[in-house]
Write a structure and sequence with these properties.
Blueprint (H helix, E strand, L loop, with lengths): L9 E5 L4 H12 L3 E6 L2 H13 L3 E6 L5 H15 L4 E4 L14 H29 L2 E6 L3 H4 L5 H21 L4 E8 L5 H6 L2 H8 L10 H12 L10 E4 L3 H4 L2
Parallel strand pairs: 1-2, 1-4, 2-3, 4-5, 5-6, 6-7
Helix pairs in contact: 1-9, 3-4, 4-6
Length: 253
């Protein structure tokens, strides 16, 4: 049966306290999934979980630093103990900053790679064994159009997201025999904290003129793609990076 319902499913959303991650958590909960929010922002994460519960959904918050293997393992173990399975993993946790290449501090380079790429690796590594055991699962990793264009903050950010794209493709190939589908979503020009941290209001306004749709995307539009990739509508899609950019990357000069 083809459906967008996720009733009875268990989902982890990393970085689910705000922005795109929050929208994904809300969207998947609305579709019926129980959502486990992983984040270091405790207040915001709990608020998101409470919002889901108050709307009739099911959600838990776990304070998790995705760069800590111990944090990730403990949280994943708790979910498996409570629910017995994990159906979907959405790796959204990420950071960005803006630097010219020669001015990127080494510690910023390392932290960006650690959060954006190693964090996704650690979460996948912790969750995949249970998905292999149940011979089914979906992994969605939030990438960025920066992996294609090289823009969006600097070489450190673009490199981390390029690594994410390669991780998606490698995992899709290795995990396909276990019916585990792995895909990426590459947002660009989304109205969220990450964009506002990199560009001024004047720069964002000018940016919109370069987008064929003449507007920024919304976190909910990215969440819609995540829902599709977790649903029964996408059973023959794996190893793909879906670019969500209003046509800018390949539709403008």
């Amino acid at each position: 049966m083809i459906s967008l319902t996720l009733e009875g499913k268990i989902t982890i959303v990393t970085g689910g306290s705000r922005g795109i991650g929050k929208s994904i958590a809300l969207k998947l909960a609305q579709a019926g999934s129980t959502v486990a929010i992983f984040d270091i922002l405790e207040k915001e994460g709990k608020d998101t979980a409470d919002q889901i519960v108050s709307s009739g959904g099911k959600a838990d918050f776990y304070r998790v630093d995705v760069t800590s293997e111990e944090d990730v393992k403990n949280a994943v173990g708790g979910i498996l103990k409570n629910y017995g399975k994990i159906d979907f993993l959405v790796n959204n946790a990420g950071i960005t900053s803006r630097y010219f290449f020669t001015e990127i501090p080494v510690q910023i380079w390392k932290k960006t790679i650690d959060v954006n790429l190693t964090g996704a690796f650690l979460c996948c590594k912790a969750v995949v064994p249970s998905m292999i055991k149940q011979k089914e699962g979906r992994i969605v990793i939030i990438s960025s159009g920066s992996a294609i264009t090289g823009s969006g903050g600097g070489a450190h950010y673009a490199s981390s997201k390029g690594g994410v794209n390669s991780l998606v493709r490698a995992l899709a190939r290795e995990l396909a025999p276990y019916n585990i589908l792995v895909n990426g979503v590459a947002p660009r020009n989304i109205e969220a904290e990450t964009l506002e941290n990199v560009y001024s209001k004047e720069q964002i306004k000018a940016l919109c003129e370069k987008i064929p749709l003449k507007r920024l995307g919304t976190p909910e539009e990215v969440a819609n793609i995540a829902l599709f990739l977790c649903s029964s509508l996408s059973t023959y899609i794996t190893g793909q990076i879906i670019l969500a950019d209003g046509g800018r990357t390949f539709g403008s000069v």
